[in-house]
From TrEMBL:
It comes from Hornefia porci. Tetramer of two alpha and two beta chains. GO terms for molecular function: L-serine hydro-lyase (adding indole, L-tryptophan-forming) activity; pyridoxal phosphate binding; tryptophan synthase activity. This is tryptophan synthase. It holds the Pfam family PALP. Its cofactor is pyridoxal 5'-phosphate. InterPro entries: Trp_synth_b-like, Trp_synth_beta/beta-like, TrpB-like_PALP, TrpB-like_PALP_sf.
Length: 464
């Protein structure tokens, strides 16, 4: 029986009462756990008390919780999710037809909300716990603006103040997301600013700098830790964020199970690792428990190849070196990725959960150049209708390549990929692609070795 006869719909929508009521914490099923965050001063694991100066209490508990497989999603968060979830699992019939592949392709579409990406899933959870703790507000950084946009929506819903440090070059060149944030009531400051000690220092050292994500993180952390009633929140990388993003994978699994579909390959783009980690969590859990086997593929840009060319060591999450040390695949916190339009993938490191699963061999990784990614994005847009975000298009390219392999071998593999967002605010990038002026820049081995040499060196953490 063909899938059309089995009536697998173009879109599988869950009803509201089928939505997950608990997050899934994949660390509980990992025999070897991700390495703990370290205090860079003492090189000892960060305690809940130390983390509590920076993050909300309940989020610290989630960050440190590596034993409870399931954590309840509070009703307030579930109510918010209902505004834009469940998100559809789409059968890419049109793409399959266009590629003439026997593969069956599905994508979980997370772009159907104003912030345009999956980041809202964690933003609303983090805002909820901040509100519950009685805080006045939160601070954060944003690059291209997806995370800041999501957080500003979440904060306005719970009546929290939201202070965003936005990488200066994006603040100036990408005014649209900045204005979405302000519309939702956030204050947006270009970083490096003169409002923080670390910002002043970076401005003095590098006059005229247009900023970086790592430097904006340092500013946001400084304001959070020095202002009464404020904490810092982060949109990716941390284990708590992957926990919240597990709703993507849980919904995907429920939808697949409804139609007895078993994926062979699961693909996600990887910046800090949150959407990939969230999408794969329940599937990786089955692998870890020995119940099933899947191929999981992380796709990153060749301009910022942390999994494919980085080292698995402890490193700072920020350029200012004020954050704890995380053990992760990293290119070095001083690595400055060459310009790439997938702003959300320009982070030097990778979630410690994704890093550990990759190190244990549960995940494969590959990297693409941005021109081939945009070519895939355009092909996808022309047949599936959705204008994809440049970040998400890395996963599209990965899925298309796997589907084309099936065309050669005749295998009918089932491929599921995460379509994390839409690209309406990325049209300058599409313009460059359409004009034929887009270029690819790939760091040399020397570039990467130079930034890895600046990773903190201590016994067991040598990068040479
Ligand atoms: C931020 C972002 C990403 C990358 O972040 P992860 O934490 O790796 O998921 C991917 N896609 C979109 C649309 C984003 O906004």
């Amino acid at each position: 029986m063909t899938d059309k006869e089995k009536k697998i719909p173009y879109k599988i929508y869950l009803s509201e009462n089928e939505m997950p009521t608990q997050y899934y914490n994949v660390r509980a099923d990992m025999k070897k756990k991700p390495a703990p965050l370290l205090n860079p001063g003492t090189l000892k694991p960060m305690t809940a008390e130390e983390l509590g100066h920076v993050f909300c209490d309940e989020l610290v508990q989630q960050e440190l919780n590596e034993t409870d497989p399931y954590i309840d999603i509070p009703e307030e968060i579930r109510n918010f999710y209902k505004m834009y979830r469940p998100s559809p699992l789409v059968r890419a019939y049109c793409l399959e037809e266009k590629l003439q592949t026997p593969a069956k392709i599905y994508y979980k579409f997370e772009g159907n909300n104003t912030s345009g990406s999956h980041k809202l899933n964690s933003a609303i959870a983090q805002a909820y716990y901040a509100k519950k703790q009685g805080l006045k507000g939160v601070t954060t950084e944003t690059g291209a603006g997806q995370w800041g946009t999501a957080l500003s929506m979440a904060c306005s819903y719970f009546g929290l103040d939201c202070k965003v440090f936005m990488v200066k070059v994006s603040y100036e060149q990408k005014p649209f997301r900045r204005e979405v944030m302000r519309t939702y009531g956030a204050s947006v400051t270009p970083s490096p600013s003169m409002e923080t000690e670390v910002g002043k220092k970076i401005n003095a050292e590098f006059p005229g700098t247009t900023g970086s994500l790592g430097c904006a993180i340092s500013e946001a952390v400084e304001v959070a830790t020095s202002t009464e009633g404020y904490r810092y929140v982060l949109g990716s990388v941390l284990s708590q964020v992957l926990l919240h993003q597990s709703v993507i994978g849980l919904e995907t699994k429920i939808a697949l199970d409804k139609y007895d579909i078993r994926p062979d390959i699961i693909i996600g783009c990887a910046g800090g690792g949150s959407n990939l980690g969230g999408l794969i969590s329940p599937f990786a859990g089955e692998m870890l428990r020995g119940e099933a086997d899947y191929r999981i593929i992380a796709v990153e840009p060749k301009s910022c190849p942390s999994l494919t060319r980085g080292k698995y060591v402890y490193d700072f999450c920020d350029t200012g070196e004020v954050c704890p040390l995380a053990k992760m695949y990293t290119l070095g916190s001083q690595f400055i990725p060459s310009p790439n339009h997938a702003g959300g993938l320009r982070f030097h490191g990778m979630s410690s959960i994704v890093s550990e699963l990759y190190d244990q061999g549960y995940i494969e990784a590959r990297a693409y150049e941005q021109t081939e990614v945009f070519a895939a994005a355009e092909e996808f847009a022309r047949c599936e209708g959705i204008l994809p975000a440049p970040e998400s298009s890395h996963a599209i390219k990965g899925a298309m390549d796997e589907a084309l392999k099936c065309k050669e071998t005749g295998e009918e593999k089932t491929i599921v990929f995460g379509l994390t967002g839409t690209g309406y605010f990325d049209l300058t990038a599409y313009q460059q692609f359409n004009d034929g002026t887009m270029t690819d820049s790939i760091p040399t081995d020397e570039d990467i070795a130079a930034s890895l040499a600046k990773v903190p060196q201590f016994p067991g953490n040598e990068t040479k």
